[in-house]
Amino acid sequence: MAARGERGIVEEAQAWFNSVPPVTRALFAGTVGFSLAAGLGIVAPYQLIFVPEYILKKYQIWRLVTAFLWQPLGFPFLMNIYFLYRNSSDLETGLFVGRTADYVFFMIFCVGMINIAAYLLELVVLSEPLMLAIVYVWSMHNRDQRVSFLFGIQFKALYLPWVLVGMDVLQGNPWPILKLLGIAVGFIYYYLDQTYPAQNNGRKILVTPQILYQQFPPASGGVAGGAGAGYRFVPPAQQAGGRAQPATNVTQRHTWGSGNRLD
Length: 263
What we know:
The chain is built from eleven helices and three strands. The protein has one domain (2-239): Rhomboid-like (Rhomboid-like fold), CATH 1.20.1540. The chain has helices spanning 2-19, 22-39, 52-57, 63-66, 75-93, 100-121, 127-141, 160-170, 177-199, 210-215, 236-239, and strands at residues 146-148, 154-156, 232-233. The radius of gyration is 19 Å and the shape is globular. It is mainly alpha-helical. Helix 5 (75-93) packs across helix 7 (127-141), helix 6 (100-121) packs across helix 9 and helix 7 runs parallel beside helix 9 (177-199). It has a three-stranded antiparallel beta sheet with strand order 2-1-3, with no helix packed on it. May be involved in the degradation of misfolded endoplasmic reticulum (ER) luminal proteins. Its main location: endoplasmic reticulum. This is Derlin. It is found in: Endoplasmic reticulum membrane. Keywords: Endoplasmic reticulum, Membrane, Transmembrane, Transmembrane helix.
């Protein structure tokens, strides 16, 4: 009976994992996999972080990607993973439904911009900026949706990235550079993808390369995304005066990612 129960749990976990949209699934699996591998001592975290000297002189180009996938284990890691999973899933099954190539291009754009900024600002752990870029783009496309945060505090989704920045400040980090970088990258993407075309007769600057469409052909259909991460959607009845339920706790900024210079 116990073995049968264990098989049932494994099958349910596998079914859930397979139900996650592909880009989010790869990002989630990579983050969990590399973080656990480093936490268990299988690989040294220093082999994963962003070190330009090793990338340029020793051709350790994997750091351009693994710097986005490693986070120190702990409660902040669990919350960051939850934020990443929920917001990325919402975008991929909502705004980008049936457009996997466009979502891959969005990720490539964010990773490229953050890598450039990391080189200039001497940052080493880049998972948090990517998460905030995803949160920012989600919040802009759901700006009027009301969310309930800690202690039932309600506000429009538009303000979610700034609430996360404010949480960092309240926790003793007066200059949350990683979160601000993610917001900046998300803003640039949203401006180039949405604002600029709207102001210039539909002319677009960001165009997904054809090779990505060949690898990820457009598909029809899809399932609408959920309510986001670390908070919950407030139905119209509750917005009108019903009492909201407390939301899940938000993530905390980990202490490793401030980006000290590595000599």
